[in-house]
TrEMBL record:
Subcellular localization, as worded in the UniProt entry: Late endosome membrane; Lysosome membrane; Mitochondrion membrane
Signal peptide start and end residues: none
A Gene Ontology molecular function term of the record: monoacylglycerol lipase activity
Record's function text: Lipase that preferentially hydrolysis medium-chain saturated monoacylglycerols including 2-arachidonoylglycerol. Through 2-arachidonoylglycerol degradation may regulate endocannabinoid signaling pathways. Also has a lysophosphatidyl lipase activity with a preference for lysophosphatidylglycerol among other lysophospholipids. Also able to degrade bis(monoacylglycero)phosphate (BMP) and constitutes the major enzyme for BMP catabolism.
Record keyword Nucleotide-binding present: no
A GO cellular component entry from the record: AMPA glutamate receptor complex
EC number, UniProt record: 3.1.1.23
Matching InterPro entries: AB_hydrolase_1 (IPR000073), AB_hydrolase_fold (IPR029058), AB_hydrolase_sf (IPR050266)
Principal location class: membrane
Protein name according to UniProt: acylglycerol lipase
GO terms, biological process: acylglycerol catabolic process
SUPFAM superfamilies, alphabetized: alpha/beta-Hydrolases
Length: 335
């Protein structure tokens, strides 16, 4: 069954200490907090269109700097704001674009075909064209579900990319089952209802279990904040379930694995050693298929590397970009 197959992504939302002192509107305060940090980090929310389809994204800086533009793709049931902790540690002169994936947050919600990995790749390609990001090669970053999309995008549109960073990507054949996959298989055997999908919580306890599954370091959020996070998610649960069933379906479950031979851009892989959603053994799969890739395994870190180790992730990506620029300059000198 599809429920026993691989899924990617996770809710990843930054949390600020002051929000815990409020009781009545934690969901609204979380949105206010994200607005505050976007402003503080210089990120501006914008919209672009491809026909009647609308993309929502945030960006900072302009193309044409010393390093390529950077496009970041979030994971399942998250939003562009999951990247705020990482962008905080990225140099101000770096052109950064964070987009809401198809159907998520401010981007158009259409039909199941758009939520398969190939469907998402097609929509991201439309987005890239709509904002002119394809005018020069850019660096693509994707985490979990977004990592699956980023890898397949790299296979489909190699000329558009200067390099790629994959963070705990979905879409591989993993040598070792993760805790998440084990739970899905147990759920399938016991014939539980779909509502029990670990990444689609419907109760405070299920949300707590999901966060524990996704983060190696406990967040210890107050009950009121947990309630607010859950209240924000529940209205979208039918949509999340539709996306989930698409990305674990036969067309998408191993999309990245199937496209690995077509990836030619320099590749960076970042993975938390304690990942319980997508097992870290996937890093060895990528390294075996693409021996030239750079692999970084993070100690004491789970699936949500952008939340748990944002400074480290930002530094690794920027170091990788700088190394690619040096390699490119050396190649020009010897040509």
């Amino acid at each position: 069954s599809e429920l026993s197959m691989l899924a990617g992504g996770v809710l990843v939302l930054p949390v600020l200490a002051f929000i815990t002192s409020f009781v009545f509107w934690p969901g609204a305060l979380l949105k206010a907090y994200n607005w505050y940090w976007r402003r503080r980090l210089g990120l501006v929310v914008r919209y672009s269109h491809s026909g009647s389809y609308r993309f929502c994204y945030s960006s900072r800086g302009t193309p044409g700097g010393a390093t390529p533009s950077m496009l970041l793709l979030h994971g399942f049931s998250a939003t562009k704001d999951m990247w705020l902790p990482v962008v905080k540690h990225i140099p101000r002169n770096q052109h950064v674009v964070c987009v809401d994936m198809p159907g998520h947050e401010g981007t158009s919600r259409t039909c199941a075909e758009d939520y398969s990995i190939q469907g998402q790749v097609g929509r991201i390609h439309q987005f890239v064209q709509s904002i002119g990001l394809d005018k020069r090669p850019f660096h693509l970053v994707g985490t979990s579900m977004g990592g699956n999309v980023a890898g397949v995008y790299a296979a489909c549109y190699p000329a558009h990319l200067s390099s790629v960073s994959l963070l705990c990507p979905a879409g591989l054949v993993y040598p070792t089952d993760s805790e998440f996959i084990i739970r899905l298989r147990e759920m399938e055997k016991s014939q539980e209802e779909e509502e029990a999908i670990p990444l689609i919580p419907t109760t405070p306890q299920e949300l707590e279990n999901m966060l524990r599954l996704c983060c190696h370091t406990s967040l210890n959020l107050p009950r009121q904040v947990m309630r607010g996070l859950l209240d924000n998610r529940i209205p979208n649960n039918d949509f999340y379930r539709e996306v989930f069933m698409e990305i674990v379906g036969e067309k998408s479950r191993h999309s990245l694995q199937e496209n690995l031979p077509l990836i030619t851009a320099p590749l960076q892989v970042i993975w938390g050693k304690e990942d319980q959603v997508l097992d870290v053994s996937g890093a060895a799969v990528l390294q075996a298929a693409l021996p030239g890739c750079q692999v970084e395994l993070l100690d004491n870190c789970g699936h949500s590397v952008a939340l748990e180790r944002p400074r480290k992730v930002a530094n690794l990506i920027m170091d990788f970009l700088s190394a690619q620029e040096v390699t490119g300059e050396d190649a020009k000198k010897h040509s």
